[in-house]
Amino acid sequence: RWLDKNEDDGQIVRELVPAGESPMLRTNCLAEPRVYVLYVDPTLDVSYHISVKTGDVPGASSDSKVFIKLYGEKADTSKEPLLVSDNDLGNYFERGRVDEFTLDTMDIGKINRILIGHDNVGLRSGWFLASVQITVPVQGRQYMFPCNRWLDKDEADGRVEVEVYPSEILPTEKLINYEVTVVTGDVRAAGTNAKVFMQIYGEAGKTELIILENRSNNFERGATEIFKREAADVGKIYKIRIGHDGSGIGDGWFLESVTLKRLSSN
């Protein structure tokens, strides 16, 4: 049904309640609003939020491709290139700047150390790495890796990769993963340019507002989009609120269905 000030009942935020827990996840919003919830093993996909700080010294920037490898108590990752940042600041690894990346992979357990470096390709290949910070919400941990050294063939010891051990491991709020699938209806003017959000309510409380957006042009007519988000574990879910802020030209939205996967074995 419509989430549009000029259509239907004029509401742009709606509450959906579960019709049950089922592998059949699609629910039609044309009739009585419903959302299906599926419980999934959380160990299959963990997000590691990686903040990389380039030093504020002359020549610190690098045009090389940077990679990272995480070593954990359960397993290690492969060498993962840091190619697309979350904060999208244009050129990456510029002097005095922090670039943020998300690595989605298996649960490797507590992180023991990291390997970080670059391919030494480009006109300005050398790099001065200040520090790396890794936050793992599903672990409730934040790891601090100070470096403050050159990764440069022509500086210091000439190495372009280095192993770093955490100097500090800080507790953070422990979150779980939710996967939200949203289907925009295939009717005239169904898409919206407004900012879409949702909030999950459960027996243990509610999440903060969760913004549903990525780099794509979201919520176009007939589109199916999947968003993975980390938020508080609210326990057994009894409803969600989903809507938009009414901003932009063409803000009205025809929402066909919502699917929610709670990535928890509980």
Describe this structure as you would to a colleague.
The protein is elongated. Helices cover 0% and strands 48% of the residues. The chain has two domains: 2-32 and 175-263, Lipoxygenase-1 (Sandwich), CATH 2.60.60; 45-171, PLAT/LH2 domain (Lipoxygenase-1, Sandwich), CATH 2.60.60. The model is unreliable at 23-28 (pLDDT under 50). The chain contains no helices and 19 strands. Strands 1, 2, 3, 13, 14, 15, 16, 17, 18 and 19 form a ten-stranded mixed beta sheet that branches. A five-stranded antiparallel beta sheet has the order 7-4-9-10-12, with no helix packed on it. Strands 6-5-8-11 form a four-stranded antiparallel beta sheet, with no helix packed on it. With 266 residues, the protein is mainly beta. β5 (66-72) and β6 (80-81) form a beta hairpin. Residues 46-165, 176-266 form the PLAT domain. This is LOXH1 protein. It holds the Pfam family PLAT.
Secondary structure layout:
Layout: E1 2-3, E2 13-21, E3 34-39, E4 46-54, E5 66-72, E6 80-81, E7 98-105, E8 111-118, E9 127-136, E10 141-151, E11 161-164, E12 168-171, E13 176-184, E14 196-202, E15 205-206, E16 210-211, E17 224-231, E18 237-244, E19 253-263
Parallel strand pairs: 2-3, 3-19
Antiparallel strand pairs: 1-19, 2-18, 4-7, 4-9, 5-6, 5-8, 8-11, 9-10, 10-12, 13-17, 13-19, 14-15, 14-16, 14-18
